[in-house]
């Protein structure tokens, strides 16, 4: 009886960990959505709420960290359980970064709301929506432990990089056209970079899910592939 | 006899892990140094070598990841050993990011070498040197398991942020003065941002060392403290 109880309780602990990650993922996703909306609608109240809510994500990360360390110590997990616990630790780090980047987008949205809008920069919301979808998908892949979905997300990183590069060029053009656009365009550039970085962290999570489900690293090299002497026009796309 | 052997072998494994982190740290430090030198001296060969060497750091990260998972499974560590192993996993993630940012600085240095230099931007090398020192100190703190040194590094993050903010303003001024400076200044801005982010990862490592040595998180909130409605001029400093 005692043993059965122990086993059940261990299962409960593992699903508590999965729930923590899912909750953290949901929060990070909402933060990204809020930040992109605040930017599009020039909504400073929403931006402020996103900034204030970042600490909630940090708290869950701390909770995940403490909980995984206790689990490792008390349960001495092996095989899939162990990969799951180490994976949760890594994923929580990526989610914390995603939320952090979202909060930074919201902060820059606040600044942009204090200056006149530049040309219709439809590119930034478009990049935001693409990355939002990717984050949503990778969280689904985690909850469903769906490796195929994770690999799909992993491959989408290239699309994000291409969209970011195009946007970067567009913003440079606006700055060249009129120096009064410079400040706004720089904030938009950093916003775009933050969103692109969120995509990178979603890619990391996809890699972790693959390792977690399959027990091996994703075989092909990362889609963003680094060349030694890159085409300068492509440079903007890497971190 | 067998038991003694097992114990010795476990100690050897733990020190192998510490060595892996120290080696990875040394490489990341060298990458940052190379990138900053390549930028200052407009040395494209050096920049190319830095970019090519990034994969070595990635390889060690993979090795650390595989090794910690095996250690956790086979040795079922507790207390300080467990914190050490989980800490090594986190630190390797930060070091991988540091090297990645250094490689990006080198890539942008390559591009800058193809266009005429802008005004003497002494600020970027200065920021680079400050962050190099911080990375060096935090690696010393890790090797010596020196919590005081780690806390000192942790507090220096504010200095990095202030220097970055000043530099950011200076670069905006150059761009406003002459639109022909825009492309170079944007690369310098992203270089400065990458270096500032390296400082953040050094701060993360300091936090991990504190947890590892003391078994508790650093108490005070992070030095970069997020305000809800930030002064717009300060915005540039957060990620």
UniProtKB/TrEMBL annotation, chains A, B:
GO terms for biological process: intracellular phosphate ion homeostasis; negative regulation of phosphate metabolic process; phosphate ion transport. Its main location: cytoplasm. InterPro entries: PhoU (IPR028366), PhoU-like_sf (IPR038078), PhoU_dom (IPR026022). It holds the Pfam family PhoU. GO terms for cellular component: cytoplasm. Residues 21-108, 125-208 form the PhoU domain. The keyword Cytoplasm applies. The keyword Cytoplasm applies. It is found in: Cytoplasm. Keywords: Cytoplasm, Phosphate transport, Transport. Coiled coil: none annotated. Plays a role in the regulation of phosphate uptake. Homodimer. Belongs to the PhoU family. This is Phosphate-specific transport system accessory protein PhoU. The gene is phoU.
